[in-house]
Structures are given as C-alpha cells and as structure tokens.
Design goal:
single chain, 394 residues, alpha/beta, Archaeosine Trna-guanine Transglycosylase, Chain: A, domain 4, Transcription Regulator spoIIAA, Rossmann fold, 6-stranded mixed β-sheet, 30% strand, globular, binds S-adenosylmethionine, transferase, SAM-dep_methyl-trfase
Length: 394
C-alpha cells in the first residue's frame, strides 16, 4: 500500500473498475482523504485497485492507472512519450504541421489536451491535479518532444469552475509568436491562440478538406456555414471551385479567413457573411441562392444528453436549410461535434430533411474525428465528431 491519500469506493463501483472506466463519480465514493488535486490511491473492498487525481466536480477521481500507484512524473513521461511516438511520425508522413498530441482520456491523461502548431504547444488542462503539477507536466512534455520551443496554457471555458479552476491563459515557456501560422492542407491559416476558439484552430476537421477535395467541384459555388476561418471551402477554391460564401458570427475568424484567401490570391472569389447563421442562411434561402456544395458544421448544440431535444430541433432546421440551398446533383457535408448525437441520429436527420423537401439523398461518406483525436473504447464519450457527406437529388 502506498503513502498516498486513500479514496474508498462503494461496492457499486466494482463494475466501472472491472471495465477500466477512468472516471470515478462522486456517488461511488464511500469516503476519502486528501486535498483536491492530490494524487490518490483508490481502494475497493480495502484493496488498492487504481490511482488517480482527486477533483471537486461530479467526477471525483480521474484514474491514471489500474494497479499499484506510480510516481506522477513517471506516468506523465511514459504517456506523453507514447502519444508522441506514433503521432509525430504520422504527422510527418502526412505533411501535417498542426495536430493534437494529447487527447485526454484516450491517451491516458484525463482532462489534458495538447495541440501542436509547429514548435508551439498549446495546453488545455481542465484538472486541478495538472495545474498543481504544471511545472512537472511541462518538463515531461519538453522531454517527450524536444522540438517544442513555446508552451502556452489556454484554460478557458464554462467547465472550469466546477473543476475548481479559473480562466488561466499564459505563456509558460518561450514566447508566443503573434504571427503564428500553419498550413491546413493547401490553406495557410493564422493561429489565434489567445483570442481564437479552442487552442486556435479546429484541428478535428483538418482531414475533412481532403475528403471534400475528391468531389467533382471544379467551377463550383460553395457555401461554408459556421465556417470559422474557412479552411474547408478555401481549400476547394485552391482546387478550382469558383466561389466560396462563408457564414460565421466571429469577426476575427472571418478576417483571418480573408487573410488566408489573400495568401492564396483568391480573395476576389470569397464572400464573407458575418452574423447569426440561422438568420443569414434563411436570407440566402429566401433569395433563392443555390450552391454545388453546402458545408454545415455548427457548434455542439448538445454538449450532453440533457440538451439533446433542443439540439435536434436546431440540427433539423439546418439540415432542411442545407437541402434547400444545394443544387440538384450537389453535395451536403453536415457535421456534428456533439457526443450525444450519434451517426444514426445524423442519418435520421438526413432522412427527415429529405422527406421534408421531397429530395433523394445518398450518404457517400461518413467523416469522423481524425487519427490524432483517437477514441478509447473505455470512454465512448471521446467519440464526439461525426459527419455525413451526401449527394442530393431534388
Ligand atoms: C464547429 S465550428 C466550425 C469549424 C469549421 N468548420 C472548421 O473546420 O474550422 C463552429 C463555428 O460556428 C460559429 N458559430 C456558432 N454559433 C453561430 C451562429 N449562431 N451563427 C454563426 N456562426 C456561429 C463559431 O464561431 C464556430 O466558428
């Protein structure tokens, strides 16, 4: 038995432990010692079964390992090295400079995200245990990936207070290049680490650009709704599409999209529509505008099952709108980054949209989250990004 503070579980926790689920909910804890953020030993029936980080949210312990407790630095070093060992060669072989190095539970580092933009690492650490051991985390990261020159912490979001954390955005190592840019496919992108969304870019749709580039879209008119910085449609312009219309509420994202278009010499072929996409899309529809491809990639309307019903109403409106706005024989790419929305639910949505508009749709591809955002079967919640690419006949 280790010297660590102990968390004793109720017998009802045994199933989760047997399935090696890395979350211990508060209701499964009989009694516990230790301070929030401590590394703790987890006991079931008085026997040590796991070790992990103690936190104040509904998830009382984020498990780091099942078995005898280990030194936190040793666990971090091993997991970071393992995450880097296959991602860095894979990224290199694909010519990818921006990718997710650590994807939380899937990499055995719960509530920890590390995105790499060239030699800049951006961290999102949503657990007190990591923040209390920030120096150790960064040291192990630099050992695992010696090419990293700058490390930035970007802890933002509504989920932080329930983890006992506050917004915390700062440069930890090196300096942050205000003009940081990376290519996403053919498209140069500014990386607005501090003011942009996520860690700067949506890396999870990076490979969708390649999926779209196989469609026959020479001379096409493309609508990119909820575009962020528009890499999906700008990539198609670079390949010979005629026009891209970007719809987005963030002025910063749109001005960065324009910067990218200028870099490609394609700014004349881009139209930027800033505002609420629901209103702007309705306006396009009322004016009878049509597109060869409609990309619809809204934010997560259903962060949990509780909001699913309202979310599905929003998705349904957008699906019908997409089918209205696409030309017969054209394509719709519909994405959802809500874990609670399954692939089957997206199919059902497509069916309802098609019935509503008397259209025929064929699902030709189901894009998902890319290789650098892996899913652990123990934590299906990690599978959040789904899409359907459809051909539409009307
Ligand atoms: C999932 S992201 C899109 C990512 C983008 N497709 C990419 O690959 O980079 C959703 C985007 O929708 C924008 N957004 C959220 N609600 C919106 C609304 N009501 N109207 C317009 N844009 C909105 C957000 O600012 C965000 O950029």
């Amino acid at each position: 038995m280790s010297h660590l503070p102990k968390v004793h579980l109720k017998p009802s926790a045994s199933e989760g432990i047997a399935r090696r689920h890395p979350w211990i909910y508060r209701g499964a804890v009989a009694h516990s010692q230790g301070e929030m953020g401590d590394l703790v030993e987890v006991l079931l029936d008085r026997r040590p079964v796991a070790f992990g980080l103690l936190g104040p949210s509904d998830i009382a312990v984020r498990i780091l390992g099942f078995g005898p407790a280990e030194d936190l630095g040793a666990v971090l070093s091993r997991r970071l090295a393992s995450a880097a060992s296959w991602r860095i060669p894979m990224a290199r072989s694909r010519g990818v400079q921006a990718f997710r190095l650590v994807h939380g539970e899937s990499d055995g580092l719960p509530a920890a995200v590390v995105d790499l933009y060239g030699s800049t690492a951006v961290l999102q650490l949503s657990h007190l245990g990591w923040i209390r051991n920030l120096d150790l985390f960064v040291r192990c990261l630099l050992e695992a990936v010696p090419s990293i020159r700058s490390v930035v912490l970007k802890n933002t979001g509504k989920h932080l207070p329930k983890e006992g954390l506050q917004e915390d955005v700062r440069v930890l190592i090196g300096s942050l290049d205000q003009d940081l840019t990376v290519p996403l496919g053919r498209v140069p992108q500014r990386v607005p680490v501090l003011k942009g969304q996520k860690t700067g870019l949506y890396l999870d749709t990076r490979d969708w650009a390649e999926d779209l580039s196989r469609l026959p879209l020479e001379g096409a008119r493309v609508l990119d709704a909820f575009s962020y910085q528009g890499h999906l449609s700008l990539n198609l312009l670079a390949l010979g599409a005629r026009e891209a219309v970007l719809v987005e509420q963030s002025p910063l994202a749109l001005s960065n999209a324009l910067w990218s278009a200028r870099g490609l010499g394609l700014q004349e072929r881009v139209t930027l529509l800033e505002g609420n996409a629901f209103d702007l899309l309705k306006g396009l529809d009322q004016r009878g505008e049509k597109f060869n491809l409609v990309i619809m990639d809204p934010p997560p309307f259903a962060p949990s099952r509780r909001n699913l019903e309202g979310a599905m109403r929003g998705y349904r409106e957008l699906m019908v709108r997409a089918i209205n706005l696409v030309l017969s024989g054209g394509f719709v790419l519909f994405g959802s980054c809500s874990h609670a929305v399954s692939h089957d639910a997206l199919l059902e949505l497509a069916l309802k949209g098609a019935l509503d508009r008397s259209a025929q749709v064929r699902v030709i591809h189901r894009p998902a989250q890319p290789w650098d955002h892996p899913v652990s079967p123990q934590v299906p919640q990690g599978e959040y990004l789904k899409g359907i690419l459809m051909e539409v006949d009307k």
